[in-house]
Amino acid sequence: MSQEKVDRNKLAKKNRERDKKKAKVKKVLLIFLFAMILGALIGIPLGRWIYNYKTTHVKEEDVFISANDYEDWFNQYWVDNYSDLVTGASLATEADTGNTTADTTSDTEAASGDTEAGTTEAASTEAASTEAASTEAASTEADTQSGNDTNAVQ
Q1: Are 112 and 121 in contact (CB under 8 A)?
Q2: Integer Cα distance of 141 and 153 in angstroms
Q3: pLDDT surpassing 60 at residue 105
Q4: How far apart are CA 146 and CA 92, in angstroms?
Q5: Most buried of 49, 78, 142, 149, CB within 10 angstroms?
């Protein structure tokens, strides 16, 4: 029994370098295998999520329009939304206010005391607001025409 033990130890000593190399290769392969599995467990779901996110949240390309088109759009937008605030005119219709033509006429007569005076005041207010709006539009147009060259270059 002792001889068997000695033979076994001699054989182990003889193959020790080879066994160390085998153990080292096994260790490296196991680390690589676990790294691949871990990478797959994290990477595949993460990759799918990123792909789905990017395909569903596509960024729209920048759209370039000419300065004249922008100017036309802005002027119309301003007239539709803000011009009545500056000029003091109301864009409300009779349906919006709930007044009828008869109610408006009687209110104007009662306020001015005379139908002609009420009509004259309404006409002068309308003319003044129209003139102010046209003056504002002309100054805006002149300003934007001077800036057209710089917008086109950009």
Answers
A1: yes
A2: 19
A3: no
A4: 34
A5: 78
53-74 tens-digit pLDDT: 888 877 777 778 899 999 999 9
Cα dihedral sign for 134, 136, 139, 144? Answer: negative
Cβ count near 89 (within 10 Å): 16
* Number of alpha helices (DSSP H) and beta strands (DSSP E) in the chain: 7, 0
- Would you give the distance in Å from CA 76 to the centre of its chain? 22
pLDDT given at position 154: 44
Contacts 24+ apart (CB under 8 A), 10-19: none
Break the chain into its structural domains and give their ranges: 2-56, 67-153
Task: Give residue 150's pLDDT.
Answer: 47
